[in-house]
Amino acid sequence: WSESVHGLMVLGMSYGILVWNPTTGQHVTLPEPMFDYKYYCLGYDPVDDKFKLLCISRDRHQVPLVLTLGPREESWRETQNSPSHFSIRRKGICINGHVYYRAKIHFQGEERRSKDKKRVLMRFDVRYENFNTISIPEDPTLGNLIFEYQGKLAWFCSDLSSSIRFWVFEGGKKQEWSPRDFLLPFPRFALHDPVWQVPMSLCGVAHETGEFVYVAASTTRKYTRKYAEFL
């Protein structure tokens, strides 16, 4: 499933792709492209007021596909001028008309050597359907989570027991990132917490309030038993 984009979500089902509006309950099923190892990113173009679904493969030889959602029946079409890359299976995110997702890119003529694959962030312009690569922060503690923070793209780092750090993409020609550090009001590795006794994991940030949203990182027997007692 995808992040919510302007009120819509995408769910991968065994019988196809489900585009769902959780507010109204309405949904539509779309056909899947005929290749394996794929995942989807939902994008929204605020200028033309259009939703588009991007399909990316883990096979670098497969060109990314795009489909425009609307009242007319559309079909998948190949994107143009996409660099040779494959996706890293993590959720993408749409911010201000651009879809961002993690990927590895191949350098032309050097595809056979693993050292010639570079870890990057891909940016897909939903309106013009073109791609750009963004250099990632030089931080060995970078995690897997990318999210929206105050209208900008942010990349979460492996957090410590009492603080967290993430990098915010400031944009510009230099593709600058700036760090943000925060102290937590609770111990993240709360193994001795009298209630939950499980570690917590950051899953995102509430767009309107800027609050960090944490969930239990594991479901131990103690956690299951405590949850049942609360019910």
UniProtKB/TrEMBL annotation:
Coiled coil: none annotated. InterPro entries: F-box-assoc_dom_typ3, F-box-assoc_interact_dom. Pfam families: FBA_3. Transmembrane segments: none annotated. It comes from the Eukaryota. Signal peptide: none annotated. Residues 2-222 form the F-box associated beta-propeller type domain. This is F-box associated beta-propeller type 3 domain-containing protein. It comes from Eutrema salsugineum.
